[in-house]
Design goal:
By secondary structure, the chain is α/β, with parallel strands linked by helices. 33% of the residues lie in helices and 15% in strands. α3 links the parallel β3 and β4.
Length: 239
Amino acid sequence: MGGSGFANTDCFRPSPWSSLQARRIKLWLALIGMGLFRFRIEVEGLEHVPTGESLIVAAAPHRSWIDPFLILTVLPPLPRTYFLAAIGTAGDRRWKRLAMSLAGGMVPVETRGALNRDGLELALAILSQGNRIGIFPEGWGDKPDPDIMPLKRGVAFISEHSGRRVLPVALAGATELWRGKTLRVRIAPPLDALPPDSDRNEEQAFVDRLRDVLVEAMPPEPPQPADGKKPWRWLTKML
C-alpha cells in the first residue's frame, strides 16, 4: 500500500507515558461516566478480551456519541484502543475536538461518509504499533434503530492487511441517555483474521459473519425507569 499521508505515527508507539495516559483516561472516563452522569454499566464477556493482543475492536450498533467512550471505559487500558472519529461529525466544532483531545483515544480523520483510504491506512499504522483500533463497521450516516445495518468491508480490509483478529462488541442502551441510565456491553470471542489476498466475496462473507455475531451478541435494551423520571435528558444530544 502507498503512504497514508500520516507521517507521524510515532505518537501511537507504546511507552511508559502512553501506558500512564491510558490508565488516566480510563479513570477520567469512569469518574465522568459513573460519577457525574451516574451511568450504570453492565459488561459481559470480558474474559473474551485477549491479554496484550493488538486487535480490531468492531462495535455495533453505533447510535450515540458516548459509544467510543463506553468501550474505552470497559476494555483493559492496555494495549491502548484508538477510535477513528469522523471530522465532519465528532470534530465539526472546536470544543468537540478539545473534548476528544482531553479524553484521549480519539483520532480525528476525514471520512467523507465512509472509512476512506487514509483512514484505513491510519488504522493499519496504529495496529502496527501494537495497539487496538476501534471502529464502528456500520459506517456513518442515518441508520434505523435498533437494527444493526449491513457492515462496510473496511473492517475486513484492515483485518486482511494487518493479520489482526476482530473483537465483536455489541452495545445496548445508548440511543437515549439520561443521568442514571443503564448501558450494556456484551463482548463476543474474537474472530480469526481474514487471510491475506482475500477477494471481495471473501471480504463480504467476513463482514456478514461479523454482523451475525454482533446481532447474536446484542444485549437486551435496559428497562425504562419505573417512576418515569429521566433527569439530564440533554445528554442524548450533548455532542
